[in-house]
Write a structure and sequence with these properties.
Layout lengths: L7 H8 L2 H6 L7 E2 L4 E8 L4 H4 L4 E4 L4 E7 L3 H5 L4 E5 L5 E2 L4 H4 L2 H6 L10 E6 L18 E6 L14 E4 H8 L4 H7 L8 H10 L18 E6 L11 H18 L3 E5 L1 E2 L10 H9 L5 E6 L9 E5 L6 E7 L6 E8 L3 E7 L5 E2 L7 E7 L2 E7 L8 E10 L7 E11 L4 E5 L11 E2 L18 E7 L4 E2 L24 E4 L3 E4 L5 E4 L2 H21 L9 H6 L1
Parallel strand pairs: 7-10, 7-11, 8-10, 11-13, 13-25, 25-27
Antiparallel strand pairs: 1-2, 2-4, 2-5, 3-4, 6-12, 8-9, 14-23, 15-22, 15-24, 16-21, 16-23, 17-18, 17-22, 19-20, 20-21, 25-26, 28-29
Helix pairs in contact: 7-8, 9-12, 10-11
Length: about 550
Amino acid sequence: MVNQKAENLLNLALDATEQEREKSMELEVGYDKEERSWDLIIKYSGDLDAVRGLGADVTELLNEYAIVNIPEYAINAMSALPEVEYIEKPKSLFFQVENGRRASCVTPLQRSETGLFGNGVLVAIIDSGIDYANQAFRNPDGTSRILELWDQGIPGNPPPGYSIGTLYTKETIDEAFRQPTQREQYEIVPSRDSSGHGTAVAGIAAGNGAGSIAARYAGVASRSQLLVVKLGVAQTGGFPRTTELMLALDYVIRRALAFRLPVSVNISFGNTYGSHDGTSLVERFIDDISNYWKSVICVGSGNEAASAGHTGGRLRPGIEQIVELAVGANEPSLNLQIWKAYVDEVDISIISPSGERVGPIQEILGPQRFTLGKTELLLYYGEPSPYSVQQEIYLDFVPTTDYINGGIWRIQLVPRRVVTGEYQMWLPSQSVLNASTGFLLPSDTATLTIPSTAENAITVGAYDSLTNTYADFSGRGFATLEQGVRSNILRKPDLVAPGVNVITTAVGGGYQPVSGTSFATPFVCGGAALLMEWGIVRGNDPYLYDADIIGLS
């Protein structure tokens, strides 16, 4: 399939066979094999009656974005509609796991006459859920501080306007607390945080420190009320997707407006797929929705800086460059993104560990297939999207048996015409690859995960508050002006917060040490809630949200 209204990855996925999709870690994300339908993200203008007329289930989001579930056979017809501007498939999201209050200057704010604790401000946690019964998220009278908990993975009673999951209100949660046994409590509100990630994040942003001496392990906005969304798990792969994230973000902003309360939103996950210049639909949605109501959106910069999952450089006329990629033994699948300026003309060849060669690859729009040993290469040579001038060459390494060829793969770049010469390459998140898979000469710049590259998000990196050093795993923007000419991500992350050995709330009670930008981000999310309490709730600055708080950072 070649459809310029659809992103390259979706075009390649639609061209692939079901067997190829099943063996790929990315191509099948969003596809329901039994229903032969796709969950897709669309940007549109006008109304979506014609899309519904094609048999699609539509959830309209703010600012003319939508999530649609549509039969595969109807995608071409949908893309032909003038109302539909652009289509993307969902991507998997990966949690960014790897002394904070003092280092973040929170303690002085809460000991002085200022006394800021997040009163009158919502903290929204979009994550793996929350241990809602934990005392850290209760009021002094034992009732819940959680106004609403939307578990996208429990079918039955979704919020109005949405089609997945079940919504539990504060009244329902408080009713569960009144049950005599834990079993009966979970019969009323069965939502659980099985990984503990969301509970840890919520504890840093807004836990009250219950059970710790003198509330030593209290979070930042310890009196804020909470909106919690437990992201649904995709049908395959076991990871939430960008579609669930967009639904969740749409929901928390709408609900904050309905409650007439400012909201600080925490997003502690991301992925590596995209041009990293803020132009994907999920990034643009964050930028757009950040202008809606009184909100601040905080996103972790990711933990990919030390993963050897990125490399890049600048091509010079007539000078060949070889990029070496080590693939570990027993790697079941892999994909590689090559991004370059559309105006540059480069011959690209792929050489397998055994010396077999493909290329120079023809510069033709659409899918191509090659077989090298035990590995099939599915390749898509793309053109720029409506929102970006960058060109993608996407390669999916699919095994013909169980595993792709291990060893050193080489990507040969021979420039024919150089205007900018810049190129970047990204692998999937380190969390889904073998430890020995990575570029032999990696770069830790341009390692922000998406959607932390959204311009209007507060992008948060991590540092070690004991040594005052930047965490080696924490994602970084572009290092120089030459590398960063494409976008404002040169200046990101916007700030850093403690993210190494932070003590926070554990599922079932007690506290635990955690590390990663996942846990730096809620310091900033909670801090933004304190600023909004001072500015909006107390009337010192009614516009202290979104751009104003980003400016302060």
